[in-house]
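Notes to self after the Tuesday call (sharing in case useful).
The group wants a holo model before anyone commits to mutagenesis around the pocket. I volunteered. Ligand is S-adenosylmethionine. Logging inputs and output together so the record is complete.
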Amino acid sequence: MRRKGFKEKLKAFLPEAEVERFRSSLEIVGDLAIIKLPPELESWGSRIAEAILQTHRNVRAVYQQITPVQGDFRLRGFRLLAGEGGTETIHREHGCLFKTDIAETYFSPRLQYERLRVARLVQPGEVVVNMFAGVGCFSLVIARHARPSKVYSIDLNPKAYHYMRENILLNKLAGIVEPILGDAKSVILERLRGKADRVLMPLPEKAREYLPYALEALKPAGGWLHYYEFLHAGRAREALSQAFKLLPENLHGFRLKPEAGRIVRSVGPGWYQVVLDVEAKP
Ligand SMILES: C[S@@+](CC[C@H](N)C(=O)[O-])C[C@H]1O[C@@H](n2cnc3c(N)ncnc32)[C@H](O)[C@@H]1O
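Result:
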């Protein structure tokens, strides 16, 4: 990537403040670039996209995100601005390959640090349940960087399940990561009750509703939950202190103790994604 050239090209037709705002919102997934265009920059879309293609040698196509992340499958709408079309790509992260289709599955390179952070907490031999696995990113990074005995990896979206299966093979992690298609609630009740040392809940929209099922998946001796939420707050610090008050002290026969928390990312003005690492003891 040649970022400096990109900035200079943008400066040729955009005001300096827009250039900075714009550069920070550029997302690269595999060989695709994704941009969001505020209404005042909409007419510059094609020129911006051409500038990206000219200065980012590994980018094949530039897409404009035209809807927010939405629906049960957490999908975004895209419009091709420049380059060769096709929304399927392979993204590299932490020594793993993630094949994905950005229009048909959820994928965010912005969770990169969080995936490795959680992987580093996993102890040898642990059984992990990833309730909302997408194309398998957290599960694969855990299996690559820790030594779990099993990572049950659930998703409701048949396309995400399809890519998850491919990614398990691509990364040679069959037997460790087990892909499961279905609703995390029913999958846990039907086949994962009392099995897990650690449960990941990377779907803030459903975290509260699915918390009892996450606890249902834990071994009777307890374990750890990674609980994700969106919070509105004036500042990041306030969002974090709110986060520590989110969960009840006792639920479903477990005592819940948030041992750590962090801001995963800012998702809008005064709006944060937070994670709590929660110890659950009987
Ligand atoms: C925010 S994405 C998770 C992304 C993933 N952890 C990653 O790192 O890329 C949430 C995922 O949950 C899935 N999902 C939504 N409702 C679900 C449910 N009830 N049970 C299982 N998966 C569900 C969606 O299809 C989506 O892929």
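Two things stood out.
The chain has two domains: 3-86, 104-281.
The two ends are 51 Å apart (CA to CA).
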